[in-house]
Amino acid sequence: MESEFYRIRRLPPYVFAEVNRMKAQARARGEDIIDLGMGNPDQPTPKHIVDKMIETARDPRAHRYSLSRGIPGLRRALAGYYARRFNVELDPETEVIATLGSKEGIANLAMAITSPGDIILVPNPSYPIHPYGFILAGAAIRHIPVGDGSDFFTNLSRAVRHSVPKPLALVLNYPSNPTAQVVDLDFYKEVVAFCRRHGIYIISDIAYAEIYFGDDPPPSILQVPGAREIAVEFSSLSKTYSMPGWRVGFGAGNKKLIEALGRIKSYTDYGAFTPIQVAATAALNGPQECVAEIRARYKQRRDVLISSLAAAGWQVPSPPASMFAWAPLPTAFAAGGSLEFSKLLLNEAKVAVSPGIGFGEYGDGHVRIALVENEHRIRQAARNIKQFLAGADPQRAGARLRAVGN
Predict the structure, then answer these.
(1) Domain boundaries, the chain
(2) Do the beta carbons of residue 177 and residue 207 sit within 8 Å?
């Protein structure tokens, strides 16, 4: 039945729900499902961060309301990170804000700056909060196809030329979730110049900036001269320090956008639990060897996944960054689409992945594979997939899947 609520009606059926339902049913039957679907880091949070949180939580004064913009020490630590990592000097009072993860920051910024009917430019495929945060705020989305030979700037120019009214903002996400694509500083320079000419804000998501596998770390758009006149950037500590459940992130950049986000947050939350913010400060200011160790572990898993899938007969490009591989559907299964292939992998190979269609229509030729299991489990997943691919008849497998009600 269609919802009576306006914002709920704007949300399509959750594509991942079908795979999640099948996964839960299989586990209820006692089946061993290797879950490479959700990007949920499995590595423990470094001990010194946990110890700082515990130490602070023992102080009764730390259990009162916190600050929605983030405690001053955390905002200074975030500014310090930008100075060290990107050589970008930020004012922690006006150009930095702490958020409950980057997802909350993007969604609340959308609420702060969007009027019904505003046009937002969003890459497709993309992480769901990038379009739907703005859709929930009443915006209209114009998709920019990315990947598979698409020319980003040609598509961007066409979108702006044919948008009425003029677009309010452009969303960027590099390293990309789900595609793992990376860009260089020249790309950002061209984007900033384009958006300044057209009066378009930029919302950049760099949640995976520290999970990279080459020699050159991914840049920040705020490194571009003049970017802070139109751009704000979001990230979180979830992947960098393996702190997904802590829900601590930040926004940085344009003062006007940061102020707007802060105004909304002042009405909606009191900020993260103070001991979590103190521990996040310790993470940013403390020893960084743990970041290199986390990065190295993802690289090892990536290499095992790519080589094992190749041995299974599935050629998947090696991602240069992020904790995901963006895997094209095997040719024999391409016609059925990513959702059916994901369901087949779960039903036949006992491996869960995310269907590409869940990230937008241009993702339907792929599935996203998360590096969230250890190397032994990844090799086991590849063996299961190899056995499935070797004996699979796509038509008969699909018919069998439908026959059992999945």
Answers:
(1) 6-44+290-403, 47-285
(2) yes
Contact (Cβ atoms closer than 8 angstroms) between residue 248 and residue 282: no
Give the model confidence (pLDDT) of 172-194 as tens digits: 999 999 999 999 999 999 999 99
Residue 279 Cα distances to 22, 84, 249, 272, 274, angstroms: 37, 19, 12, 11, 9
Over residues 49-67, the pLDDT tens digits come to 999 999 999 999 999 989 8
Do the bridges between strand 96-99 and strand 249-253 make them parallel or antiparallel, or are there none, so unpaired? antiparallel
Q: Which CATH architecture has domain 47-285?
A: 3-Layer(aba) Sandwich (3.40)
Read off the pLDDT of residues 270-323 as tens digits, 9 standing for 90 and up: 889 999 999 999 999 999 999 999 999 999 999 999 999 999 999 999 999 999
What whole-number distance in Å separates Cα of residue 397 and Cα of residue 405?
Answer: 13
Question: What pLDDT is recorded for position 68?
Answer: 87
First and final C-alpha spacing in the chain: 21
Residues 6+ apart with CB under 8 A from 112: 257, 260, 261, 263, 264
Which CATH superfamily includes the segment(s) 6-44+290-403?
Aspartate Aminotransferase, domain 1 (3.90.1150.10)
The rounded distance, in Å, linking the Cα atoms of 100 and 103 is 8
